[in-house]
Amino acid sequence: MSETLVAILLGIVEGITEFLPVSSTGHLILASELLGYDAATWAMFNVVIQLGAILAVVVLYWRTFWAVASGLLRMNPVSWRFTRNLLVAFIPAAVIGLALHSKIEVLLGEPMVVAWALVIGGIAILVIERLVKSATIHGIAEIPLVRVIGIGFIQCIAMIPGVSRSGATIMGALSLGVERRTAAEFSFFLAIPTMLGATTLELLKNHDAIASARVGWDEIGIGFVTAFVVAIVVIKWFVGIVSKHGFAPFAWYRIIAGIGAIVWLSMR
Fold it and tell me: Which parts of the chain span the membrane according to its record (predicted)?
């Protein structure tokens, strides 16, 4: 398979899965097993193209970011609470991610961990959807600080490949009384500092490997643009789906995909 085609396929996988509660990292790991390409060669590529998906959030919600930025200058309390909540929720991932980085990298090479995490995560989503019946918090700025801290720590569970950063964040927010659309959008916005931090860490730790990597900037550019375009479509679709139907469809997908992966990995 040509490197250009691999770049396009991985960009599509990243764009589709980054903001859905199905685990983008897990899908990229399973894709390497399914397609049979050298996962180590494309590991840095997979990290960098995440920025394409993050850029999609900035483009789609530019009015929100503009309003928050201008509100900060005017000392608007809503803008300050919005910004505070994002930064506070990001801190646990930053601290724990730095502390456990080497152990997390070991898990990234275990596709069976991904498969089981997909199944368990799907079951967890179904349970939470059934148990959580009412939501009292509407709007990111309205989430109390204590609950923001809780969401930040729950996001850290996604350091296990296959758990899903967006899934952990959304389900954590739902469990703490945040309504569905706000939970989903909080997950989108929280992805910006979280993924920027993760990408920066990878680039700093592996700058020598980047210079000698076989995957060139052409492939990275193709994957980046592909992830960006696909993520824009997926984010718009996702918000509409969860507002009407909840997260159960994604839970069942996780369970089916995870069981399929477990069977396939066991038979190789």
Answer: 39-62, 82-101, 113-132, 144-163, 183-204, 216-239, 251-267
Residue 81: count of CB within 10 angstroms of its CB = 19
Identity of the amino acid at 95:
V
Which residues contact residue 229 at a Cβ distance below 8 angstroms, ignoring those fewer than 6 apart?
Answer: 15, 56
Name the nearest CA neighbour of 264 among 34, 25, 9.
34
H or E segment and range at residue 34: helix 24-35
Torsional class of 23: left (φ above 0), alpha (ψ -120 to 50), beta (otherwise): left
Q: Is 144 helix (H, G, I), strand (E, B) or coil?
A: coil
Residue whose C-alpha is closest to residue 128's, from 25, 254, 19, 15: 254
Sign of the torsion angle spanned by Cα atoms 135, 59, 86, 124:
positive
Q: What are the backbone dihedrals phi and psi of residue 260, each rounded to the nearest 5 degrees, phi first?
A: -60, -40
100 — phi, psi (to 5°)?
Answer: -110, 15
Predicted model pTM: 0.84
- The model's pLDDT over 27-59, given as tens digits with 9 standing for 90+, comes to 877 877 777 766 666 667 777 788 888 899 999
Distance CA 40, CA 45 (A): 10
* DSSP one-letter code for 137: B
d(CA 112, CA 148): 32
